[in-house]
Design brief:
Elements lengths: L3 E2 L2 H21 L5 E7 L3 H16 L3 E7 L5 H13 L5 E4 L9 H7 L11 H8 L8 H12 L8 E5 L6 H10 L3 E5 L6 H5 L4 E4 L17 E4 L3 E2 L5 E2 L4 H4 L5 E2 L6 H19 L3
Parallel strand pairs: 1-11, 2-3, 2-4, 5-6, 5-7, 7-8, 8-11
Antiparallel strand pairs: 9-10
Helix pairs in contact: 1-10, 2-10, 6-7, 6-10
Bound molecules: NADPH dihydro-nicotinamide-adenine-dinucleotide phosphate.
The site of NADPH dihydro-nicotinamide-adenine-dinucleotide phosphate has 25 residues, from helix 10.
Length: 283
């Protein structure tokens, strides 16, 4: 069997087209959706992510602001800027690119963002709302995965889902979203015993670990849908996921590639959240 590819680039282009239309309609009413991005430090991967987010915003007809601070900036400066952006009615979404340098209390920074502008969905109030099944902003990566499952018509009700990884930004919110769709969810992590025992039971397998090609074809149930969130580099410097694509595609029913899978959808759903925040201003 060769798995159907769930193409994140194609879906992303389709969704971004729809978002651009909604952004244009909002502009006609005098509101230009605006995302403010804060970057602290010189981490090259973070700089690329921020550049891509800003470019995607502009391409979709949204405005963006970018504040870049030196790695040794006094956190008070960043807190002051967040307060300013919170109070600015022309700014609808605020995102602080993670990770922050060690002298920052990352949790305090995320809590400083107004929950109404927290388009990453990381504020405790928004995490709580998601847990209660009434999300205000869905964290972008799991939101993108849900869109991919929907576009591929993957049955969710009663499906056995195994998520590998329990981070606050991917694994945990992913579990909540799939639980809300009546999946039976298992979350695995670094202390899980016999990982393959769990993954082989999964109708839907989500890998969000950060270990190149750790999920191999023999760990996958034939016909399963495999969602690869991981972004890693091979020793040769090539991008790859947490799933060994070559062996997995022979067993899975559907699979997301890396690159061109979940990555583009994450940015797309950031745009969606920013637009939704702006649309709420006229409701
Ligand atoms: P974290 O490092 O925060 O979490 C990784 C998780 O994997 C942890 O829960 C950890 O367990 C678990 N883990 C580590 N080793 C193993 C193992 N051997 N077996 C089972 N579980 C294990 O990562 P993130 O969730 O932030 O990101 C995961 C991956 O997804 C990364 O590659 C990241 O780059 C990528 N990513 C991609 C995005 C995209 O847009 N495509 C967006 C965000 C992330 P424990 O909790 O016990 O330590």
């Amino acid at each position: 069997m060769t798995a159907k590819i769930i193409d994140g680039n194609a879906l992303s282009a389709e969704v971004r087209g729809q978002l651009a239309e909604r952004a244009a309609a909002l502009k006609d009413k005098g509101i230009t959706p605006c995302l403010a991005v804060i970057l602290v430090g010189e981490d090259p991967a973070s700089a690329v992510y921020v550049r891509n987010k800003v470019a995607a915003c502009e391409k979709a007809g949204m405005r963006s602001l970018r504040d870049v601070y030196a790695p040794d900036v006094d956190p008070a400066v960043v807190f002051a800027r967040i307060a300013e952006l919170n109070a600015d009615p022309s700014v609808h979404g605020i995102l602080v690119q993670l990770p922050l340098p060690k002298h920052f209390d990352s949790e305090a920074v995320l809590e400083a963002i107004s929950p109404e502008k927290d388009v990453d969905g990381f504020h405790a109030k928004n995490v709580g709302a998601l847990m209660q099944g009434n999300p205000r902003f869905i964290p972008c990566t799991p939101y993108g995965v849900m869109k991919m499952l929907e576009s591929a018509n993957v049955p969710l009700k009663g499906a056995e889902v195994v998520i590998v990884g329990r981070s606050n930004i991917v694994g945990k919110p992913m579990a909540m979203l799939l639980l809300a769709k009546s999946c039976t969810v298992t979350i695995c992590h670094s202390q899980s015993k016999d990982l393959a025992f769990h993954t082989r039971r999964a109708d839907i397998l989500v890998a969000a670990v950060g270990r190149a090609k750790m999920i191999t074809g023999d760990m996958i149930k034939p016909g399963a849908t495999v969602i690869d969130v991981g972004i890693n580099r091979t020793p040769e410097g090539k991008l790859c996921g947490d799933v060994d694509f070559d062996s997995a595609k022979e067993v899975a029913g559907a699979i997301t590639p890396v690159p061109g899978g979940v990555g583009p959808m994450t940015i797309t759903m950031l745009l969606a959240n920013t637009l939704e925040a702006a649309e709420r201003c006229i409701k």
